[in-house]
Here is the input.
Amino acid sequence: MAIEMLYFAWVREAIGTGHEMVEPPTDVATIADLIDWLGARSSGHAEALADKARLRAAIDQQFVPLETAIAGAREIALFPPVTGG
Here is the structure.
């Protein structure tokens, strides 16, 4: 299943792109699994995704916990926590 990945803020800067299409293996079941799998794609991915505690996620534009299953997802966004001021 192809998933469009969207990256924002310093996650995008470290990876070097704002989006990419990926086809994770079947054993990648949750966003946390996906982050681990993506971290092996390049040194930029590894840097951006090393600390899951610094990441938030959305599936098809809905905020979700990292333990959420990715089955059926068309789009997954990864970004730092949003802060207000």
Remarks:
- The longest strand covers residues 3-7.
- DSSP finds three helices and five strands in the chain.
- The radius of gyration is 12 Å.
- Residues 32 and 66 are 5 Å apart (CA to CA).
